[in-house]
């Protein structure tokens, strides 16, 4: 900064510095409010949820794991039923973990089996079966 020799120049320099300080104070307050808002628990949860939904790989993994857990739990309930036998409960838990791991590790197989079952229930033929049917009809 240059040397100030007059009171008018001093007042102008002070006014300039006060304006600069005021502007920097406003920017600092805005940054503080943004930081404060971002660390609120609800905003942390929202931002985490946005990150999860933005990542397709993470969505697939989450879906596969969820399907595995549901399949494992359903198999345990079906096997165990209302039994109070500790051995049956133990086998039901082991079965649940086994099915959960199998479904989570091999989701492609589960999806194809699920599609096949759904097609059988709804009566819609899958593409391969329809193609064989069409070929057989043309050759006959």
Please give a quick description of this structure.
The protein has helices at 7-38, 41-54, 56-80, 86-105, 107-122, 127-139.
How would you describe what is shown here?
The chain has 140 residues and is mainly α. It contains six helices and no strands. The model has no long low-confidence stretch (mean pLDDT 82). Helix 3 packs antiparallel against helix 4. 86% of the residues lie in helices and 0% in strands.
Number of strands: 0
Distance between the termini: 98 Å
Instruction: Name the assembly state.
Output: single chain
Spatial shape? elongated
How many individual helices? 6
Mean pLDDT across the residues is 82
**Main sheet properties:** none
Report the uncertain regions.
Answer: none
Order of helices and strands: HHHHHH
Radius of gyration: 33 Å
Helicity level? over 70%
Based on helices, strands and strand pairing, what is the structural class? mainly alpha
Strand content: under 5%
Q: Which helices and strands, and how do they pair?
A:
Blueprint: H1 7-38, H2 41-54, H3 56-80, H4 86-105, H5 107-122, H6 127-139
Observed structural traits:
140 residues; mainly alpha; 86% helix; elongated
């Amino acid at each position: 900064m240059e040397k100030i020799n007059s009171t008018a120049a001093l007042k102008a320099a002070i006014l300039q510095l006060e304006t600069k300080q005021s502007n920097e104070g406003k920017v600092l307050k805005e940054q503080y409010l943004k930081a404060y808002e971002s660390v609120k628990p609800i905003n942390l949860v929202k931002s985490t949820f946005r990150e999860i939904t933005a990542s397709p790989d993470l969505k697939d993994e989450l879906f596969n794991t969820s399907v595995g857990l549901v399949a494992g739990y359903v198999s345990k309930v079906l096997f165990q039923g209302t039994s109070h036998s500790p051995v049956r409960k133990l086998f039901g838990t082991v079965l649940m973990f086994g099915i959960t791991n199998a479904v989570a590790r091999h989701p492609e197989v589960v999806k194809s089996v699920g599609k096949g079952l759904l097609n059988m229930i709804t009566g819609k033929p899958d593409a391969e079966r329809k193609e064989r049917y069409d070929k057989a009809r043309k050759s006959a």
